[in-house]
Write a structure and sequence with these properties.
36% helix; 5-stranded antiparallel beta sheet; 6 helices; 203 residues; SH3 type barrels; 21% strand; elongated; 3-stranded mixed beta sheet; alpha+beta; 8 strands; 2 domains
Length: 203
């Protein structure tokens, strides 16, 4: 069995079957290591350039469904390509990264279901640093197949109370894509992303 086939088998179950050899081939050709990480609240994936080691390091949260895992993976692959071509002479999520991310998605587009492709087209028209900053994309990608009701800050209104990261907050007002909220216990104010998944609460 070739190195490509072995790596593709290891990826089975994490990315869609049609994408296993594509991802494996990229990792081998670009001298990159992919680590399956434990769930992280602050990020879905991460990229580290070959500074202290001889290879690129990419990590992706292992609790993601295959389509979300693949999208986060190509997000990080785009960072790798930016490093190879520009090193530190490009912004982390600047024009170079956006270009590579979009180009990679075109290569992998056929690996996503048609209903997701429609949503992803809109995602790539309004591309920002966050892989998932679109509520519709989150509901249809990250939580695909989960029989649970999802509540985001976007679903609430001023004055509503919610639990987030073991704290209780009250919404004050919306500010573009974030909401100004007050921590009920401390009285301190914070900006919370509208796509943050929370639990409704009462004061």
């Amino acid at each position: 069995m070739s190195e490509l086939q072995q790596l593709a088998m290891q990826l089975d179950g994490f990315v869609p079957p049609i994408a296993t050899e594509m991802v494996a081939d990229f990792l081998i050709k670009k001298n990159a290591q992919l680590t399956i990480s434990k769930p992280r609240k602050t990020k879905l994936g991460d990229y580290r350039p070959p500074l202290k080691q001889a290879y690129h390091r990419v990590s992706v949260n292992g609790d993601l469904n295959p389509f979300a895992f693949l999208l986060v993976t190509i997000h990080e692959f785009a960072h790798l390509l930016v490093w190879n071509n520009h090193k530190n002479n490009a912004k982390i999520h600047g024009a170079e990264w956006k270009m590579h991310y979009k180009q990679l998605y075109v290569e992998y587009q056929h690996c996503f279901p048609e209903n997701l492709q429609i949503i992803l087209q809109d995602h790539f028209k309004k591309l920002t640093a966050a892989t998932l900053n679109n509520p519709l994309l989150i509901r249809n990608l990250i939580h695909m197949g989960k029989d649970i009701e999802i509540t985001m800050v976007n679903d609430l209104k001023s004055g509503d109370i919610f639990d987030f990261n073991d704290n209780k907050f009250k919404i004050i007002e919306k500010r573009r894509t974030r909401y100004l909220c007050k921590n009920i216990d401390s009285g301190k104010k914070y900006l919370v992303p509208g796509v943050a998944i929370v639990n409704r609460a009462i004061e």
